[in-house]
Amino acid sequence: MARMTMIEAVRSAMDVSMAKDDNVVVFGEDVGYFGGVFRCTQGLQAKYGRTRCFDTPISESGIVGTAIGMAAYGLKPCVEIQFADYMYPAYDQLTQEAARIRYRSNGDFTCPIVVRMPTGGGIFGGQTHSQSPEALFTHVCGLKVIVPSNPYDAKGLLIAAIEDPDPVMFLEPKRLYNGPFDGHHERPVTPWSKHDLGEVPDGHYTIPIGKAEIRRAGSAVTVVAYGTMVHVALAAAEDAGIDAEVIDLRSLLPLDLDTIVKSVTKTGRCVVVHEATLTSGFGAEVVSLVQEHCFYHLEAPVVRVAGWDTPYPHAQEWDYFPGPGRVGRALAEVMEA
Questions:
Q1: Which end of the chain has a smaller Cβ tally under 10 Å, C or N?
Q2: What angle do CA 167, 173, 179 make, to 5 degrees?
Q3: Nearest by Cα to 203 from 8, 16, 23
């Protein structure tokens, strides 16, 4: 089986999908000849031509608006927003048009678009290249939201997203593009070529949207995370020597509540980790659901570890970034409660 980075896995997903279905088109800023700012679309224009992989003007609302029109016509656009931080001009198109087409047409029309966007920090991108806006999408009825944590999942989930009849927001943690970053920024990053989840089949496969994965079995405390924070949580549990069960959500909407409830019912404790700012972050929804469904099994308050309620600070990247030290302290807190 081939070893791929997340960049190569995402590219392979689009390649497989374009080869399988002529209706799949890829477009966005610099995704054609240049191959994308992170090279996720490199070679697709040369292979499939300029009508199926092409560059657009710098207009996020135009990119998504065009994708919605193409989807209504019968195509399957997979578009790229160069950074998640730039998606705000397209938010109206996503929330008022794409998310509502099935409902407004009484099922006569669907909107099979995928909006890919690099998300998160850890690359010294500062306040306009480091945001994690996933909670803005999970609040919108009609959208699906995916955040993979590794190349194998990224490919299988992206193919599933492209084949889904409804709009899917596909957030790619850019700090994971080349390796499973665990938050220990002072250490060399292990490349995906040396990680089991870097093994990715060449051909077509899908991973069900809405199904979480347990990355580490444990009985003392449940850690719920997604994206880069999955690897941070694994490192924190290892560093602290705590028998933590780590759940990789993979899909935020739909959410695999059953896996969360089963785990917290077993462990009696829960820590929720995400990189986005704390207030109104997606972790608040998870905490609410755990409280609602697992109240009589909890032996300690549910704790959140997240980014600060401030624009992403370039000068204090590693203080803002929820690293294994902060997660480890949260684990110790719930174990001592």
A1: N
A2: 135
A3: 16
Output the CA torsion sign for 200, 201, 205, 211.
negative
Give yes or no for a contact between 117 and 174, defined as CB atoms under 8 angstroms apart. no
Tokens of 316: 């204090």
- Any catalytic annotation for residue 129? yes
Tell me how far apart the alpha carbons of residues 252 and 175 are, in angstroms, rounded to a whole number: 19
d(CA 128, CA 132): 11
Q: Which of 281, 245, 286, 285 lies closest to 266, judged by CA?
A: 245
Which uninterrupted H or E stretch holds 173?
strand 168-173
Whether the pTM exceeds 0.90: the reply is: yes
**Residue 252 to residue 331: CA distance in whole angstroms:** 23
Three-state secondary-structure class, residue 119? strand
pLDDT tens digit at each of 337 positions of the chain: 899 999 999 999 999 999 999 999 999 999 999 999 999 999 999 999 999 999 999 999 999 999 999 999 999 999 999 999 999 999 999 999 999 999 999 999 999 999 999 999 998 898 999 999 999 999 999 999 999 999 999 999 999 999 999 999 999 999 999 999 999 999 998 999 999 999 999 999 999 999 999 999 999 999 999 999 999 999 999 999 999 999 999 999 999 999 999 999 999 999 999 999 999 999 999 999 999 999 999 999 999 999 999 999 999 999 999 999 999 999 999 999 8
Supply the DSSP symbol for 92: H
Long-range contacts of the stretch 35-40 (C-beta < 8 A, 24+): 36/80, 36/82, 37/82, 37/83, 38/7, 38/118, 38/174, 38/177, 39/7, 39/11, 40/7, 40/10, 40/11, 40/14, 40/80, 40/116, 40/172
Q: What are phi and psi of 208, to 5 degrees?
A: -60, 130
